[in-house]
Design brief:
single chain, alpha/beta, Rossmann fold, 5-stranded parallel β-sheet, binds adenosine-5'-triphosphate, binds the ligand Nc1ccn([C@@H]2O[C@H](COP(=O)(O)O)[C@@H](O)[C@H]2O)c(=O)n1, kinase, EC 2.7.4.25
Length: 203
Amino acid sequence: MESFIEEFQGDHEKTSELVVTVDGPSGAGTGTLASFIAEELGINCYSAGDFFRGIAADRDMTVEELGKVADKQTDLKVDRRTLEKGLSENCVIEARIPSRVLGTYSDLRIYLTADLEERAKRVSKDQEEGKRENEEKSESLEEVKERIRKRDEENWRRYKDYYGIENTKDIYDVLIDNTEMTIDEQQEQVRKILERKFPEQLE
Ligand SMILES: Nc1ncnc2c1ncn2[C@@H]1O[C@H](COP(=O)(O)OP(=O)(O)OP(=O)(O)O)[C@@H](O)[C@H]1O
Ligand SMILES: Nc1ccn([C@@H]2O[C@H](COP(=O)(O)O)[C@@H](O)[C@H]2O)c(=O)n1
């Protein structure tokens, strides 16, 4: 068993029996999919993005501001929590890189994405509905697009600098592009995967 990030490699004791990780860029719907999987499997759901947002709030910063200045210790703090949760508790964890942090300790590694335009529309709609906390607000769709593009770029600059990892897809068990999919269609597809992979956990 191993993590794909050097910092977390070495032997870890894993007491959890069922861990699913969902990675993807902003607005891909990782939170939505992770909640669905957690509900289906009857386990808890965590978001490393929430850990990061918590640190930003404590420092009175937006996620974008923290993303620009976060040092390695900040990412290590977030990702250690991901590792600890995944090793000790049956759960689903979603964020940018939980599948890389947990590596082969994760029993199912999913990468979810959608076109930038579609992701920006989702984020913009969420913002209009007041759903996104301590995030910079944007006036137009073009601004949201540019902001989430920059955020994803900043994230990957840090992961590359701090962890030496690249944004490749070879580590995933399942890749889903949901640009043209409704939430229901996506859930139907993932339910079939869960039935094959974890038949005993599903009623
Ligand atoms: N397949 C889909 N089709 C259309 N809309 C979707 C789909 N999946 C999620 N959404 C919607 O997109 C919005 C963002 O979803 P969610 O919060 O799950 O994304 P996220 O990837 O966790 O975002 P972030 O990482 O930026 O917090 C929500 O309003 C959600 O209902
Ligand atoms: N290892 C990390 C470090 C940071 N994040 C970030 O959290 C931010 C907010 O995430 P959302 O999913 O709620 O948008 C995100 O921009 C990342 O910088 C992380 O997920 N994992």
